[in-house]
Amino acid sequence: MIDLKNLTIEKAHADMKSGVYTPTVLANACLEVIKQKNAEINAYVEVYPDVLEQAKTAEEMFANGTATMMTGIPISLKDNMLRDEYTASASSKILENYTATYSAGIVSQLKGAGVVFMGRTNMDEFAMGSSTETSAFGNTKNPLDTTCVPGGSSGGAVSSVAMDGALCALGSDTGGSIRQPAAFTNLVGLKPTYGAVSRYGIISMGSSLDQVGPIAKNVSDCEILFNAINAYDKNDGTSVPVENRIKPSPLKKKIGVPREFLKGDGIDPVVLGNFDQACEKLKNAGYELVDVSLPLLKYSLPVYYILMPAEVSSNLARYDGIRYGESHAGGKLFDTYAKTRGQGFGKEVRRRIILGTYILSHGYYDAYYNSAVKIRSAIKNELQNAFKDVDAIITPTTPTLPFKFGAKSKDPVSMYLLDIFLAPANIAGVPAISVPSGSSNGLPLGLHIMAPFHREDILFTIGKDFEKLV
Fewest C-beta in 10 Å: which of 275, 318, 413, 425? Predict the structure, then answer.
């Protein structure tokens, strides 16, 4: 019997290469877990019917010597990633029956590497949420404690790995939607540099903020999956050519801590205590920790909640009941628009569309949107200057432990505040990772690490060093 709980990508690859078991056996083991657990956890909204066919293809790659490190590895896809001829709904009623006509760039890349796509995972509708409570297909539960949320919006993705229904997963991160749920489920989650990973074929939320990234059990597996998707894509206008990316250089072994940023309201003392312990562990690993002054960082969240709804309003205008997706006919064209969007979109999506439309409206565009764009640029410059002196900047991943269902759903502002440590990386476009940092009363905590553009190697190095001490 395969020990899925402790199985990593590296171990699975070695086992399949040496013939301990086949990709089909591994896929069947994950399918059995999904059969046993998914009815309760609700990580998957669909298990792909061709899982064993994919596993057979992987076996052929091992047989003919073309296998890669990812060949035969069971992986889940967030429900906003297109796979040709399969449904992709962004967990929204408006796209419930939408069938993709092409595959996302990352899906094509991984298919070529021989992965086994297990299915598409539940998410907050159109990635709008921090708890996977806004999905049109029901809540996803945290496999570590089913009374708690798994975080969001990639809650289904992390839960698929945490319950052993996949060895790794792909999520998307607009303001922390990979890193926060990873922290809530004791996993590693990476938001790569903006432009490092293709966004082609990803259902957009906030186009200047969205980034696809890996979710895995440890830093090494996260690195392996990142390397498999880290490539230039000519179909993505935001993709950065490899020759224009910053090359790795020796580490200073110096980490910045923005102490004044950790004094905000709503941060659980348990979280701060765990962060202090994490700092001591990094010192023991040979890193020098220095205080850094980042006075603009506190404006990241307000900037995010101006830019993101504005982009949501623009991106979701395409769902009008005319071209594709759900449609509810009305007496006039406007009635069709109104009925389709009113019935097809959930409450949180409608809230953000309305807010974004207001932000972009005449008379408010300069006061809100343009001001946010200017502050975004200043935050980006502030971080770039800080990275001249330190390799990385650390904070807790989240201000709270995983919380109970319904604890924050009636107070949108308290839900939005969960992104306080995460939004800066999306605002600036820099890479960031969440690594497990311990637990309190059985609930996990995470350490958040940011690095300069295209320096994911720094995140992996620090993450691996830290992992040994936890």
Answer: 413
